[in-house]
Design goal:
By secondary structure, the protein is of the alpha/beta class. The protein has 2 domains: about 230 residues, Rossmann fold, CATH 3.40.50; about 160 residues, Glycogen Phosphorylase B (Rossmann fold, 3-Layer(aba) Sandwich). Helix content is about 50%, strand content about 15%. The strands form 2 sheets. A 7-stranded parallel β-sheet has the order 3-2-1-4-5-6-7, with helices on both faces. Strands 10-9-8-11-12-13 form a 6-stranded parallel β-sheet, sandwiched between helices. Helix 5 crosses helix 6 and helix 11 crosses helix 17. The chain starts with 9 loop residues before the first strand and ends with a helix.
């Protein structure tokens, strides 16, 4: 063991997707970086993507991989094109049948990660999500370092929830085999929920001691919840993914407007369902505002200006395992939450009385929103409890402490 104290630890954090691609991923990585930096850990980000990374922590350093796409300045473009291919069911099925293509991509990434890592005298390599994890496991023996695979979701289940592949199809089995290879090959797997921990242990046969819960969280971004006399602004933050069940929220809007004509509604202007949701809003004769804030500071300023945060979700296993980052974002600025009951993370809302959990139909969802809009005092009370919950339990300093404990055990 080269270093025993957190303030002397050097961690390599490997990314295989750019920032500003997924709000949830960005918030998790930035939150852990801030928490680790406060604990004295030195973090070296290793990535092909540089254009939109802005890090303020003094102990965080960024290293660009020596890839041709990086040198040509087209790594972000290639990633975006790849993402579109993977979200097309026909193309994905053809690509995933050739597992070798993913393996080749991971191998190329791994070779270049090794070139950077061997010069840094690291203690741990942590890979974010599956492609980066696959790459790091491949070079694990050469590095002679523990490798941590950070799972934000189960890729196979997310592709099923997105409608790209079918449950138990060939593509599903290939993705599961890749994830099993990662989970078994890593020295530890970190996950965002107890449900995901159980899934990995049972589905991949990984010992309980090697799967560690590092919850999604946030930081208190305001001291106190604001007092609003005439609440009106309702926001659904985050990208419009198929498993979000955004239609439930959109269908609820006309019911809300019947009793609260002054209500205003905000949705993300990003995600594969954007056009569909815009079309649905037009058909219903409503005009929610579609916004996007690539800068996290602007995003949280905007959230602070809202009065109610909503999370509409499917009950798919992928969504139950991947707790939504926007839940903690809402709580961090004192926004009460309205969500349809899918179990799992919705129990946080119920048990801590930070919002309203409804049945899974538009009229019931609208009633949940109206319960708050028509009761400003309840908005304030839920907001205060939410801020305190983030302060005491769901904050990234505590998640970073758990991560450091894992690092110490591994080294």
């Amino acid at each position: 063991m080269k270093r025993g104290l957190a303030k002397n630890m050097k961690i390599g954090l490997v990314l295989s997707q750019p920032f500003a691609h997924s709000v949830g991923t960005d918030v998790r990585i930035r939150g852990l970086l801030e928490g680790l930096s406060k604990l004295g850990v030195e973090v070296h980000i290793i990535t092909p993507f540089m254009d939109n990374i802005s890090i303020s922590q003094r102990r965080v350093f960024i290293h660009r991989l020596p890839l041709l796409s990086t040198r040509l300045g087209i790594s972000n473009l290639i990633h975006e094109l790849s993402r579109r291919f993977l979200n097309n069911p026909l193309l994905f099925k053809n690509i995933i049948r050739r597992k070798s293509l993913l393996s080749k991509n991971a191998s190329s990434l791994g070779r270049n990660v090794y070139k950077i890592s061997r010069k840094l005298d690291l203690d741990i390599v942590q890979a974010e999500q599956q492609i980066a994890s696959l790459a790091c496991i491949e070079i694990r023996e050469k590095l002679d370092l523990p490798v941590v695979a950070d799972f934000h979701g189960i890729w196979a289940e997310e592709m099923v929830a997105s409608g790209v592949i079918e449950q138990r199809s060939d593509g599903y089995k290939v993705l599961l085999s890749i994830e099993k290879e990662i989970a078994r090959g890593a020295d530890a797997v970190t996950v965002v929920s107890e449900e995901m921990k159980t899934y990995i242990e049972n589905s991949f046969g990984v010992p309980e001691t090697r799967v560690v819960l590092i919850p999604n969280a946030s930081f208190p971004r305001v001291e106190k919840a604001k007092i609003v006399k005439h609440p009106s602004k309702v926001v659904h933050a985050g990208t419009l993914h198929p498993w979000e069940n955004v239609e439930l929220f959109v269908y609820s809007i006309p019911f809300v407007l019947k009793r609260r004509p002054s209500a205003k509604f905000f949705l993300s202007r990003k995600g594969v369902k954007l056009k569909r949701i815009m079309r649905l809003a037009s058909e219903l004769g409503i005009s929610p505002e579609f916004t996007w804030f690539p800068n996290s500071r602007d995003f949280f300023y905007f959230l602070e200006s809202c009065d109610v945060g909503v999370i509409s979700s499917t009950a798919h296993v992928a969504r139950k395992m991947a707790y939504p980052a926007k839940l903690y974002d809402y709580l961090s600025v004192g926004l009460p939450v309205v969500a349809n009951d899918v179990g799992a993370w919705t129990k946080i809302i119920k048990e801590n009385r930070v919002g309203v959990v409804t049945d899974n139909d538009p009229e019931a969802f609208a009633e949940g929103i109206l319960e708050l809009l028509e009761n400003p005092e309840l908005i304030h009370e839920c907001g205060e409890r939410g801020i305190e919950l983030v302060r005491q339990e769901f904050n990234y300093y505590r998640s970073a402490e758990r991560l450091v404990s894992l690092y110490k055990r591994l080294v």
